[in-house]
Amino acid sequence: MDGAIREIKKWPERTIHVFHHNDADGLSSGAILLTAFERQGFYVERNCLEKPYPALLKQIFEKEGRILVFADFGGRIAPMLSAMNRGRNLTLILDHHVAEASTDPKVYNLDPDLFGLKGDRDISASTTCYLFAGALDPANRDMAHLAVIGAVGDGFYVDGRLVNQNREAALEAVQQGRLKIEAHDRGERYILRSETGDIFYDDLALYLELLGAGGYYRRGPDMGIRVCLEGRTPEADKMAGDLKIIRNNAFSAEIEKLEKGGLKNSSRIQYFHVGNRFSPMGVKMIGAFCQKIRDREFLDPKKYIAGFQILPNEIPGFGPIEFNEVKVSMRVPAYLEGEITAGRAPGLDSFLPEATDRLGGFSDACHRLAAATTIAMGKEDQLIEGMEKILGREGKH
Predict the structure, then answer these.
(1) CATH architecture of the domain with residue range 2-205
(2) Each residue's pLDDT tens digit, 139-189
(3) Peptide bond between residue 54 and the one before it cis (omega within 30 degrees of 0)
(4) I need a surface site. Which of 136, 156, 228, 280 has the fewest CB within 10 A?
């Protein structure tokens, strides 16, 4: 991080382009970076992305001489970013997913996975961005409470508690009087102490996810950034309330379809396709839906869950882009989560990216218990077959 910061400070360009994810971790990451860079006198152009799609990256890397920062995605595709960049832009990756090393010295892959930390246990993207902001200027450590939003939002606890770097950020926020920790019989709950009153972090994370994912095509991420920095407002509450109605209606209708036989099964995977039925919400919602239904009675607790959603041919801030692709999001039931955590079953990141790559699809941010990739429309069944072959080849689960 220190090396990247030295490069930033001597780089002639004073505009920084920040690209961040649209869930609670990505929004809090974006808020931290926006604040930290503006405090240094930079002008920040911020774009919220559901994924750093290759078609979009080609547009981003057409220009040169810029400072580009990717937050909460990009770690695994550092070689791709390096090939596109070719030393022309100063590029930073502040991710926490499974990562690969950069092959371009101007692409700084600051993903903690490359330094022995686990992104689904030790450190969120928001905590990574918080540590970077603190390295940029120690005064930025006043944003510890923002780091905790992403850590709680991603929900990677050990025995119900944040651990390691995530916990260090939480304890620092406690010392600053911005956070309170309550112990209970299943671990801990984290409470943000704000001027508008106390709010549980897990409730705040769900609120932000609703804005960022449900409202992705309605400027919801911009509102989410404002909430991170300024707190909830009547305007934000109105937007979240309207989006909640849209989400609940879409989810209820889809659950009814699945209960009536809309679920398909292979040997180890149970899957379904929502088509465009979650529109106008973003494709992050297919993962939220998989998480919501993961322990419903109509699902097999021993099988992986996969949901498909058509990717709209549009990205806010960039206009029309022809994708003709679907997003697949995967989650696991509680029983299978225990098996994966104990090492008795493979995590999603061990087979979904490989199966996706074989079909020429795009994979970036994948964890053991939550993962998502994109493939060409019409290749859904091939992806399921490919994952089954990998799982069968390894003789696992």
Answers:
(1) Alpha-Beta Complex (3.90)
(2) 999 999 999 999 999 988 999 999 999 999 999 999 999 999 999 999 999
(3) no
(4) 280
